[in-house]
Amino acid sequence: MKNIFTPLVFALIVGSVQLAEAGSGDQNRTTDRATQMTKQLAQKTQLSEGQYVKVRQLNVRMLNEVQETKARLASDPAALDQKLAEMQAHYEWDLATILWPRQMAVYTQSKADLMAFSAR
User: Fold this and answer.
1) What ranges do the domains of the chain cover?
2) Tell me: the pLDDT tens digits for 33-71?
3) Do 74 and 80 touch, CB atoms closer than 8 A?
């Protein structure tokens, strides 16, 4: 199961690396990235307006937590890996409370497709 989360966490980290290096524009970039992630999810899962707002808030919170965690645990890669995997699991748990079952199935399938593609 750890193998499932690790590629997703690294994808999230790679997407947020620029955010951590930015400076005072961090919050704007974080919200822009969260909006981009939410739009991508909305296209795949056909989110309602209420779901869109909740997922976007979840994405903003997740990206902020990733930035803080990377800064705090930069000197301990193993602990960082573990914490990011826990954060990804928590994110997916929260996402499952927002999405309907068929939407969650689409999200899960999209992850599987992404991992299959990145393994090639």
Assistant:
1) 2-19+26-118
2) 999 999 999 999 999 999 999 999 999 999 999 999 999
3) yes
